[in-house]
Amino acid sequence: MQHNQKPSNIQLFLAFFRLGITAFGGPSMVAYVRKLAVEKKGCVDEGVFSDGVALCQMIPGATAMQSTAYVGLKVRGATGAFAAFVGFGLPAFLLMTILAALYAYGHSLPVVLSAFSGLQAIIVAIVANAAITFGKNTLRRWQAFLIAAGAATLFGLSVNPIIVILLAAISGLVLVEKKSPNPKSSPGLDQTRHFGKAILLIVTIAALSLSLLFVFNRTLFNLAVLLIRIDLFAFGGGFASVPLMFHEIVHVRHWLDGQTFMNGIVLGQVTPGPIVITATFIGYVLAGLSGAVVATISIFLPSFLLVLGITPYFDRLRAWPPFSPIIGGVLCSFVGLLATVTARFSLDVPWDVSHILLATGALIALLKKIDILWVVVVGTVLSIMIFP
């Protein structure tokens, strides 16, 4: 793929597949997507890419994954979006499926038990760090603190997360400061490529697939519907999906226990790609390879379709005055959600001096911006050494 030359769909797939192999760090991967698309390949210019990141941050889903779809969309339309999106996510799916299979056969081995015992404490630190980082960027006024505290209280009382998010959106409309509409001129819709046919085709295939699952495998149908719903409400990036999954899968449906779910998050951290690849683990544990495939498609498809559907209208949507405070309220609710989940995850850890030191060390390392992959790798080695 040569600089400034329009790449083919296969070239897009291969370029993003190579990037996806090293896609550690969740949202931080947006910077690497930019480097590939803007600097190395010259697929899109800086301004177009920046607009795409703004779009991906404002709609639900994993931001880094969606940014790849946006680049592909600008380069080759709907097929380009699909090629880039699948290419970027495929390495994470393949590796997580392999790790889930190994976990299913070996999770009772002493060395695995030792590793996961310590890593549970590190996961608490990872979620706490996400809450702190997210909070610093989001809670800049007392009104935002109020919405976050209210959301944390409702989440703590096990109120349905979707209800909490909707209440936060309404609160944002009332309490969050309204910004002036973006004065940037937006292109006329007649100048923008529309992707209605592609969206209709994908939705039709998805609906038929769900109908078949409803008839032949109700468990997979229920899993698919749940993960689709979670993805549609995962404002704030992929990390927002994990607390929703934890609430629904562990507390509401009891499909997995808290410890197994946390082990899935650990595997999600040591694989490339967004943290929501944990859905692949959940699907595999529940229903084997077919469960992994259904879960993965379900947790990514809605946000992919949102990129396709909203991109032509994004400038007009961003200029709509209520849009910013509504999104602001939703983002505040996720700070509360992350705080609640930090507390809930901590209840599943057998706290002693070693676990406390591990969690504290991991949190300090993360706050010092040390790469999350190294925190998990070092934590794994220490866990095997420390815990019998």
In short:
The protein is an all-alpha fold and 388 residues long. The protein has one domain (9-179, 200-386). It has helices at residues 9-21, 29-40, 46-58, 63-106, 110-138, 142-156, 161-175, 196-216, 218-232, 241-252, 258-270, 278-310, 314-318, 323-347, 353-367, 372-386.
List the helices and strands and how they pair.
Elements: H1 9-21, H2 29-40, H3 46-58, H4 63-106, H5 110-138, H6 142-156, H7 161-175, H8 196-216, H9 218-232, H10 241-252, H11 258-270, H12 278-310, H13 314-318, H14 323-347, H15 353-367, H16 372-386
Structural account:
It is a single chain. This protein has one domain. Helix 6 packs across helix 14 and helix 9 crosses helix 12 (278-310). It is globular. It is built from 16 helices and no strands. The termini are far apart. 76% of the residues lie in helices and 0% in strands. With 388 residues, it is mostly helical.
Q: How many β-strand runs?
A: 0
Largest pleated sheet = none
Helix/strand order, N-terminal first: HHHHHHHHHHHHHHHH
Distance between the first and last residues' Cα: 51 Å
The helicity comes to over 70%
Backbone shape: globular
Question: Top keywords for this entry?
Answer:
mainly alpha, 388 residues
